[in-house]
């Protein structure tokens, strides 16, 4: 049941299509092949400090976001992003490059080959709705789980390649050499059956039926997704609320010797090729290094005064709740403080959700931010008296 109707836009902001927010302009950077070199990351940190609020947000779709940018700084900032190699030369391609690739890819492997081929094909694909996205999850372990994408290349339990439409439990089997042809056919089907009007694949599938042979095999289980910790020479880390503090990030890059950073779904990121002692260096720089850190289970969007739609502050309260309730969180539990009912930071049910409304908070248990609250108009003080979920 829905209690409120937050404003939903039919497009995502990009680096060349900034969005006005409560604290200025917001620009989203979509790293090519999901990777930013250490040098470009240092440059991005510098731009965030000079033109933004000093933070780089990890988005749920594994992009990087700068916010708090004065309108007059946008051109200088986009010039800076272009100089760092973070933008496609063609603005149309840049707007279509909604691709999430699993962070474990290696040059020449299946994920890398599909992503490279897809990037080269973007200009030839049919015109798709603004939020339409692609996931490439064909690495050694399942890692992306669609994350707000509309179509995903995945592996079936037997290791075969499949292409799955979001909202469908099963995917179409494809031979490796025909991956992009299969994608093109699915996109043509989406357009021909009216997908442009419904906007997203999952919504479209509520009414449209996929061809039966496109429902042939289930993807691998997503029961276990990547978590903070070392994997070979790489290191997966988190940051509270997915906010990377620019100066801390530069310290991290310097102290770990990482050659690149790959943003990941779930507001994590992977440092590629780190030196010995990187875990300790990351911990010292304030990043999340272990899967049991309670901060990973606490979600909060920027809230007021940073987002124009926010009806209350979020992160200060979330930090206090994390200190108070975090140690008692059991695995799988989650806590969400949202500036409004849109629920950007955790658009699904949490064990405890607080939604800003008219400067106070509505409280929901085991519900999404847009559901009907069980208590309304709570103050920070009321909420901090909570001793359990
Ligand atoms: S959930 Fe948060 S970030 Fe999203 S629109 Fe509402 S206040 Fe803004």
Automatic annotation (TrEMBL):
Q: Which residues form the Nitrite/Sulfite reductase ferredoxin-like domain?
A: 18-83
Q: Pfam families under this entry?
A: NIR_SIR_ferr
Task: List the Gene3D superfamilies.
Answer: 3.90.480.20, Sulfite Reductase Hemoprotein, domain 1 (3.30.413.10)
Q: Give GO terms: molecular function aspect only.
A: 4 iron, 4 sulfur cluster binding; heme binding; metal ion binding; oxidoreductase activity
Keyword list, A-Z: 4Fe-4S, Heme, Iron, Iron-sulfur, Metal-binding, Oxidoreductase
| Family matches, as SUPFAM superfamilies | Nitrite and sulphite reductase 4Fe-4S domain-like (SSF56014), Nitrite/Sulfite reductase N-terminal domain-like (SSF55124)
Q: Which domain of life is it from?
A: Bacteria
Q: Does the keyword Heme apply?
A: yes
PANTHER family, per database record: BLR3264 PROTEIN, FERREDOXIN--NITRITE REDUCTASE, CHLOROPLASTIC
Q: What name does UniProt use for this protein?
A: CobG
Q: Name the species this protein comes from.
A: Roseovarius nubinhibens (strain ATCC BAA-591 / DSM 15170 / ISM)
């Amino acid at each position: 049941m829905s209690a409120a109707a937050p404003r939903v836009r039919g497009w995502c902001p990009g680096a060349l299509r900034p969005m006005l927010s409560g604290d200025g302009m917001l620009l989203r950077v979509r790293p090519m092949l999901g990777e930013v070199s250490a040098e470009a990351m240092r440059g991005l940190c510098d731009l965030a400090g000079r033109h933004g609020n000093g933070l780089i947000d990890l988005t749920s779709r594994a992009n990087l976001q700068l916010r708090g940018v004065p309108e007059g700084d946008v051109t200088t900032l986009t010039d800076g992003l272009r100089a760092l190699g973070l933008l496609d030369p063609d603005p149309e391609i840049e707007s279509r490059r909604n691709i999430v690739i699993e962070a474990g890819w290696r040059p020449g492997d299946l994920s890398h080959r599909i992503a490279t081929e897809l990037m080269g094909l973007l200009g030839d694909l049919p015109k798709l709705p603004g939020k339409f996205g692609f996931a490439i999850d064909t690495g050694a372990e399942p890692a992306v789980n669609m994350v707000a994408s509309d179509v995903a290349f995945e592996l079936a339990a037997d290791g075969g390649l499949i292409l799955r439409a979001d909202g469908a439990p099963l995917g179409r089997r494809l031979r490796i050499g025909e991956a992009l042809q299969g994608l093109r056919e699915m996109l043509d089907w989406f357009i021909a059956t009216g997908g442009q009007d419904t906007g997203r694949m999952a919504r479209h599938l509520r009414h449209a039926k996929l061809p039966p042979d496109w429902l042939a095999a289930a993807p691998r289980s997503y029961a276990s997704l990547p978590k903070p910790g070392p994997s070979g020479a790489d290191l997966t880390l988190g940051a509270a609320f997915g906010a990377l503090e620019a100066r801390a990030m530069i310290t991290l890059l310097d102290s770990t010797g990482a050659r690149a950073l790959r943003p990941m779904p779930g507001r994590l990121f992977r440092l590629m090729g780190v030196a010995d002692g990187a875990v300790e260096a990351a911990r010292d720089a304030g990043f999340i290094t272990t899967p049991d850190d309670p901060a990973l289970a606490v979600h909060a969007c920027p809230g007021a005064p940073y987002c124009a739609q926010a009806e209350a502050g979020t992160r200060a309260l979330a930090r206090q709740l994390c200190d108070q309730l975090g140690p008692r969180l059991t695995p799988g539990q989650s806590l969400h403080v949202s500036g409004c009912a849109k629920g950007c930071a955790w658009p699904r049910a949490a064990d405890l959700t607080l939604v800003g409304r008219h400067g106070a908070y509505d409280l929901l248990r085991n519900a999404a931010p847009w559901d009907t609250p069980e208590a309304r108009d709570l103050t920070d003080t009321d909420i901090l008296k909570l001793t359990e979920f």
